[in-house]
Design a protein that fits this description.
The protein is mainly α. The longest helix has 22 residues. It is built from three helices and no strands. 62% of the residues lie in helices and 0% in strands.
Length: 80
């Protein structure tokens, strides 16, 4: 997201990321996760709002854990 905002992306705070960067990375997230772009948008918004990548990673890990629990506990293999 920051690379799409500036060539010197390491100097760009997460709160300064442009919406276009968020949309492009959400689409890339969706392509990598079989068209599930909405969670990528939520994780990106978390990153932009909180300014801490750790919180977005924790949100992603929590979502993955909940999906795994649904698959294994509820026999919902179509979610995998």
């Amino acid at each position: 997201m920051r690379r799409l905002t500036s060539a010197d992306f390491e100097s760009v705070p997460y709160q300064s990321v442009r919406w276009s960067g968020l949309i492009v990375t959400s689409i890339a997230f969706g392509l990598a996760h079989r068209v599930l772009w909405l969670p990528g948008l939520a994780f990106g918004l978390t990153l932009m709002r909180r300014g801490c990548i750790g919180e977005a990673v924790a949100a992603h890990a929590t979502a993955n854990a909940l999906i795994a629990a649904s698959v294994l506990g509820g026999n919902k293999w179509q979610l995998w």
